[in-house]
Amino acid sequence: MDLTGEQRSIAQGEAGPLLGKYMNWLIAWGEAMGAKRLVPVRSVHAMLRTPSTRGCSRRTVEEYIAELRQVCAHRVKCLTTTQVASAGSNYWRESGASQEEAAFESELRNLARRSGFQLTRTCTPYLVGNAPLKGEVCAWTESSAVVYANSILGARTTRHGMESSLAAALLGVTPAFGEVLDENRRAELHIDVGVELRSEAEYGALGFYASAVARSYIPVFTGIASLAAEDAKQISASLPYAESAISMFHVVGVTPEAPDLQTACGSRAPRVRLAFGARELRDTFQAMTDLSPGEEVDTVILGCPFASLWEIQRIAEGLAGRGIADSVQLWVATSYQTAMEAERLGFAELIRESGGRLMHDACPGSAAILGSRRVVTTSFKQAHHAQTVLGSRTAIASMERCLEAARKGRWG
Amino acid sequence: METKRIVGKGIVGGRAEGEAVVSTVPLCFRTEYDPATGEVIGLRHPLRGQNLRDKVLVMPHTKGSCGNSMAFSTGCKEGNGPAALVCLRREPLAVLSCVVNGIPMVSDLEGDLFEVIDTGDFVHVDADAGVVTVWKKPI
User: How far A259 CA sits from the closest chain B CA (Å)?
Assistant: First the structure.
């Protein structure tokens, strides 16, 4: 790799052991991925948290905590928001955190303040002020946010993990490979959408279908006239989850790098063309639906990825005055920032009055503690987690149908 | 014993060997692997119940969560990480996982990987040379 003198000296340990290790990780990762250089970033979304160490040894937990303390003894080089953690939530017990994790999260909040990390605790950083513009190189973690940044914002990031996102935050650089480079942002799979998509969940289905057929190809969609941010959020959440770890999509006439099909494909013919019609839409829902019509529902999870204020308003107004069934727990997950605004505008109160719970900072879906057996959600990603991790039976539907399931305590 | 040799690209250097665990579908370490035991716990994953500790994991690539490297690293700290990764292509998080934990990785192999390696075969991975040697398990 072509390194600057400063990068080389940091790698040799001249800025201390932690930065030395992190620089070497970025270099080795970049070289393995074919990067020729490290490029500056102005936006990082970092995984600053203890991992899920349930069942792990003391030594592993302590090793992580020691490393995070060390990280926070440095300063971030640019705007750095932080990913969801299990601790720190207003419902931390329900979100599966241990007492120890919750205590460390409080310490981390103070450490983060000094080191410049914004402890935003969200999977939708673009909704809380980390919204890079077109062409900006970033280093983001969170699979759905990576897709959203590349596709909707036109920013440039590869899929970062905990180690690389922390390194990028402290060093202000990322290896230039993947979606950072022009040549890796071109669509190779053309999917013509021949059915009207009427809810965020149906856009999620489109993303899930594309993930199942995409192999390593970036998809470009035609036949979509416009897209709400909430719809884009669902495509972004689905795309890495079926079979391919895709981190970008285009919508002709809508997303910033797809004024027309030819431009989206970089003036080459797409390798594969497919049609997404009513049948594909129905089949994609069916493949992820276990619940039968009339079957009891015990959990409704909304806000995956974290809800926007507009979604919370729709939930609050959709529930207003009508309570949910006693047998159902309704969770709405969002960031602290959005939860506080929802509080001020009265939406949070409406949700509480109806028996729902607005959880901030953490995600109810990753928590086995919920004991959810029958889950309804707007999100294919959430349904995938519920099936895979919790062993739940699931169904995916529009916000309105999810709220109806919460009120009736039944699916369909 | 029958021996086969496949040539690919060494992605993360080093050499390791062990019994192969083969999945023709991708794996998400964050949601489908338990770092505390090394076991694949994804309820709908074909490798469910298999332990990856010291095994050569053969799969198309990783998928899903950006928490993949975090879960992988936790598994390695606990001594439950795989010995090596053999993949069809380089997914950034699989590569990062191997880089930060010093696990050899080979990808982009010539020929059909899944025709050559089966679960239970003994596999030597030379990621410095980009060569995978397979001793077929006796049938």
Answer: 28
Chain centroid to Cα B62, Å, comes to: 10
The reported pTM is 0.97
- ipTM value greater than 0.95: yes
Identify all chain A residues contacting B45, using CB atoms and an 8 Å cutoff: 388
Can you give the pLDDT at residue A398?
A: 97
Q: In the structure, what pLDDT confidence band is assigned to residue A26 with cuts at 50, 70 and 90?
A: very high
CATH topology classification for B3-135? Glucose Oxidase; domain 1 (3.50.30)
A299-408 — its CATH code?
Answer: 3.30.499.10
A141: which chain B residues are within 8 Å (Cβ-Cβ)?
66-67
Q: Cβ of A25 and B62 within 8 Å?
A: no
CATH 3.30.499.10 applies to domain A5-182 = yes
The interface residues of chain A toward chain B in range 48-77, judged by CB-CB distance below 8 A, are 51-57, 59-60, 63-64
The SS3 call for residue A195 is coil
Tell me, yes or no, if A243 comes closer than 8 A to chain B by beta carbon: yes
CA distance A155 to A337: 23
pLDDT, tens digit, 9 for 90 and up, residues A375-407: 999 999 999 999 988 889 999 999 999 999 999
- Kindly report which listed range (A130-134, A322-326, B17-21, B103-107) carries the lowest average pLDDT score: A322-326
Least confident among A43-52, A84-93, A291-300 = A84-93
Instruction: Give the angle A39-A41-A47 at the CA atoms, nearest 5°.
Output: 115
Q: How far apart are CA A177 and CA A179, in angstroms?
A: 6
Per domain, the residue ranges of chain A are: 5-182, 186-287, 299-408
One fold for both A5-182 and A299-408? Answer: yes
Distance in angstroms (rounded) separating the CA atoms of residues A166 and A117: 10
